[in-house]
Design a protein that fits this description.
TIM Barrel; two-stranded antiparallel sheet; 11 helices; 15 strands
């Protein structure tokens, strides 16, 4: 197990004492369009995000058989649910183009693999980290495949009991593991975010970086997550929350993502080390306002 709460991902570390790793989740907000996905990647770069994340599924495996023929309205007209799920998946040619675009834009990318075939698909691109989505937390065979990679893995914990989380953690490599607190509602009510679970997970797993994957409509809870000790945060990104798609309402538009990142950096700068000190900037007020002085050590801002 790690001797400290820190894991190397690509060219940087995620964990205590490091800037929060901020992930822009593309999810399926691109609606199967490479051009929309590229604009979302541009937005993540513009906002100062650390990484973008894709999702990869094999529809024939992930969609229950009894839902295949359910008809639904889509941007491409009315079609079966299984055909819709096929529409929003990138094939190898399109995905390769997006991976190259991330490299061109100098932003880290990775993906959540929802099934074994999706895992093998993503594996060929050798991303620096993988994510296990909340619905897959109890798929122990898929977890074991991730463990065998010997790569960092983010485990998302939405819709899960503590026993299910513990069982999943016991399968994965603790030296390579990061855990994301999450509630799998889209969008999620503030009273169901339960951000104090970040502290609970930090106490239960003192050597594992703990983060937050949020699906709320605002930004304040994600800022609070960082203040509570989240080493990484993930939010869905979109070009327009009014766009078609089930995840759009729980997503953050580009300017909102820029505010999210900027304020996280302000929060990090303001948290300090918890040791009380007198700063040089306080001296004039101290001299003017304090009637009785005592010896002190002055700290200059770095």
């Amino acid at each position: 197990m790690n001797s400290e709460r820190k894991i190397r991902v690509g060219e940087r570390f995620i964990g205590d004492g490091e800037p929060a790793f901020i992930i822009a989740e593309l999810g399926i907000n691109h609606n199967g369009s490479v051009e929309i996905a590229k604009k979302m990647i541009d937005g993540a770069v513009f906002s100062g995000c650390s990484a973008v994340k894709f999702q990869k599924r094999t529809p024939e495996i992930c969609v229950p058989k009894d839902q295949w023929d359910i008809q639904r309205d889509t941007p491409w007209g009315r079609m079966s649910y299984i055909d819709y799920r096929r529409k929003v998946e990138f094939n190898k040619e399109k995905f390769t183009e997006l991976v190259a675009y991330c490299k061109q834009k100098n932003i880290t990318w990775f993906a959540s693999c929802w099934d074994e075939n999706a895992f093998e698909f993503i594996r060929q691109y050798n991303p620096p980290v993988y994510k296990i989505a909340s619905p897959c937390l109890t798929d122990h065979e898929l977890l074991e495949m991730h463990r065998e990679l010997n790569k960092p893995v983010i485990l998302s914990t939405g819709m899960s009991t503590m026993k299910e989380i513990t069982d999943a953690v016991n399968i994965l490599d603790l030296k390579k593991l990061l855990i994301a607190h999450s509630t799998s509602s889209y969008p999620c009510k503030n009273e169901e975010l339960n951000l104090n679970m970040i502290k609970t997970l930090r106490e239960k797993y003192p050597f594992i970086p703990i983060g937050y994957s949020g699906h709320e409509t605002g930004l304040a809870p994600t800022w609070a997550a960082v203040a509570l000790g989240a080493s990484f945060v993930e939010r869905h990104i979109t070009l327009d929350r009014a766009m078609w798609g089930t995840d759009q309402a729980a997503s953050v538009e580009i300017l909102g993502m820029m505010r999210l990142v900027s304020n996280i950096r302000d929060i990090e700068a303001s948290l300090g080390d918890g040791i009380k000190k007198v700063y040089e900037s306080e001296l004039s007020a101290r001299k003017k306002l304090r009637r009785i002085q005592s010896p002190l050590k002055v700290y200059k801002a770095v």
